[in-house]
From TrEMBL:
<keyword id="KW-0732">Signal</keyword>
<feature type="signal peptide">
    <location>
        <begin position="1"/>
        <end position="21"/>
    </location>
</feature>
<dbReference type="Pfam" id="PF12697">
    <property type="entry name" value="Abhydrolase_6"/>
</dbReference>
<dbReference type="InterPro" id="IPR000073">
    <property type="entry name" value="AB_hydrolase_1"/>
</dbReference>
<protein>
    <recommendedName>
        <fullName>AB hydrolase-1 domain-containing protein</fullName>
    </recommendedName>
</protein>
<feature type="domain" description="AB hydrolase-1">
    <location>
        <begin position="107"/>
        <end position="365"/>
    </location>
</feature>
<dbReference type="InterPro" id="IPR029058">
    <property type="entry name" value="AB_hydrolase_fold"/>
</dbReference>
Amino acid sequence: MASVVVVLVLAAVSLAKKGRAAPTGRQCVQLEVPVSVNTTATHWLQQKVDSNIDAVDYVYDMTTWTSPNTTSRILGEITVKETFKITGQLCVPAKGSRSDTLQIATHGVGFDKRYWDAEVKPEQYSYVNAALAEGYSIFTYDRLGTGGSSKPDAYDVVSAGVQVEILHQLTALARSGKLVSSSKKSGGVSNLGNYRPKKIIQVGHSLGSAIVIGLLTADGASSDGAIITGFLYNSQIGGASLAPWGFEFAKENDPKKFGDRGSGYIVQATKSNTQLIFLKKGAFEPALLDYAWKIRQPNTVGEFVSLTTVLGHPAPDFKGPIQDYGFCRGDCKNTYNVTEIKSLYPASSALSVYLQPGTGHGLTLSTNATAGYKVSFDFLHASGL
C-alpha cells in the first residue's frame, strides 16, 4: 500500500540564500532529437488568433462563463503522424553515485528548457546544476512549439496529448540508451553516446507537470518517480484565469523574436504580466524577472483547450514515488484533499504534498528555489532514488 507524506513548510530554509556551488566537470551535450509521433488527437472548435485583437477576443471567449465549455468544443478526432525535431540538453555528472538515474524535465507555459538552467546566478537558481551536484543526470528539452523545437499547427498538433506522446517517446529513447545516438549533436561534449539510465524520474513545471501526469496515466511503468511542480489538484485550480497573461499574438508582439510562429501562437504581453504570473512580491530578484522576460516563449491555443484530455484520470500502473508542489490561484492553504490526490496514484510507493514558502509560480526564478530543490532531492533519496 502506498505511504502518504504531507509536508507543509512554514518558514524559508536558509540553504536557499547560500546557494550551491556549480558542479565540477559538468558534462552536457546539445541534441536535436527526431521524435516520430503516430497518435490520435482531439480536433477542437477554436477561435483563430492572427492578431493582438484576436488574442484578446480569444481570452474573452475562453474565460466568459457563457462560452462553450471544453466538452462542447470537441469536433472529433484527427491522426497526428509526423516526425518532429525536439531540441534538448543531456547533462551527466563527471562523478556521481546517482548518474545512472536520469531526470527528464518538462517546462511549462512561457518558457523553453532554459527555465531549468538559469544563466543568472546559476549557483542559486539553476535546477540543472542542483541536480548534477546531487549526482543525478538530467535531460531538459524544448517542448514542441518552443525554443529550437518544431513549431507546427497551433490548434490541433501542438496540444497536450501530442506533448504527452513526445515525452513518452523521449523517455523510451532514454531508457533504451538511444537518446544520444539517434540524435544530431549540435554542441557540447562527445563522450555521452552510450549513456543509458537505469532509472528515470519525470520532473515537470505547470503545463509540463500536466504533461508528466498524462504520461503517468498513459504508461505509468515508463517512469520510476515524479516531481510535479506548479500543479496540484485542489479546489481553486479551476479558478485560474488566462486574463493575467495579457496574451498577444506572438508574431505581432515581437516580429523579430517570434517571426517563425504562425496562427494560434500567443505570448505574455509585458514584463509585468510575467511578474504577475510567475513571481511573488519579496521573493524574487529583479534580474530574474529580466531573465524570465528575455527567455519568454509563446505557447499555443491548442494546449490550453486540450488540458482536460490528460488530467483527472488515475495512473494505476505508476508505482514510484511522486511529490506535488502547489498551484492554487495564489494560495494553496486548505485547498486540497490528500486522499483525493492519492486516489489518482493508487499504486504509488510514496506521495508527498509540499507547499514551498516564499515562492511564486516560477519556482526556479524565486529566491527560495534552492530550498525547494533540497526538499525534492531529500524526498527522492528517502524513496530510494
